[in-house]
Amino acid sequence: MSSTREARIARKTAETDITLKLVIDGAGCSSIDTGIPFFDHMLTLFSKHGLFDLEVKAVGDIEVDFHHTVEDVGIVLGQALKQAVGDKVGIVRYGWCLLPMDEALTRVALDLSGRALLVYDGPAGVDAIGGRFNFSLLEEFLRGFAGASLMNLHVDILKGRDAHHMAEATFKGLARALDMATRIDPRVRGVPSTKEVL
Fold first, then answer.
1. Which of 1, 39, 66, 190 has its CA 20 to 30 Å from the CA of residue 91?
2. CA contacts within 13 A on the Cβ side of 161
3. Any residues with CB less than 8 A from the CB of 17 and at least 6 apart, and which?
């Protein structure tokens, strides 16, 4: 394991141009600019509540739709997490959080297993946040993030009426669960797997 668990990723496609820096052992400092104010707010919450230092600059075809930018930022953040965690020596590996946000309640459980899977259970037919950010983009972000980081991620939105609150509970819960999973436990010898590989 390197002494500084961080990664810088740049990814450019015909639809998006993204640069991102992630420091796992940070202080929750962030500089986020995706061109999508609500998404910027969610990523700032993720940084603050996971104590990750995060810099994101994304330029995407948001005049067409927010989908490509949100999904691709999820992919790049997942790539950065995978790189920053490195060989996973000494990590806790598992993380979970039950996170309330006013009337909303989200459960997040994850395993930095090296196997990509998203299991998502959230409400359908939810109004767009601020009239522009489709609630279904939350699942697209999570799918991109779980896939690129090779994480087993379960997200269940258990309660909620306000779309903003449900999304916020999810991002905060993800941050807290990931902070738990990426912590170094001095009792762990090698990687926490009987296969000795994650």
1. 39
2. 2
3. 11, 58, 59, 60
Please give the share of the chain, as a percent, with pLDDT higher than 90: 93
Whole-angstrom distance, CA of residue 191 vs CA of residue 101: 34
Q: Does domain 6-182 have CATH number 3.30.230.40?
A: yes
Burial-class residue 195 by CB neighbours within 10 Å (0-12, 13-18, 19+).
exposed
Round to whole Å and give the CA distance between 184 and 125: 40
> For position 197, what pLDDT does the model report?
86
Q: Say if residues 193 and 135 touch (Cβ distance below 8 Å).
A: no
Residue 195 pLDDT grade (very low, low, confident, very high; cuts 50, 70, 90): confident
Lowest mean pLDDT among 37-41, 63-67, 155-159, 188-192: 188-192
Please report, for the chain, the start and end positions of each structural domain, with discontinuous segments joined by +. Answer: 6-182
**53-60/104-111 β-pairing:** unpaired
d(CA 170, CA 133): 15
What is the rounded distance in angstroms from the CA atom of residue 67 to the CA atom of residue 136? 9
Cα(60)–Cα(91) distance, integer angstroms:
34
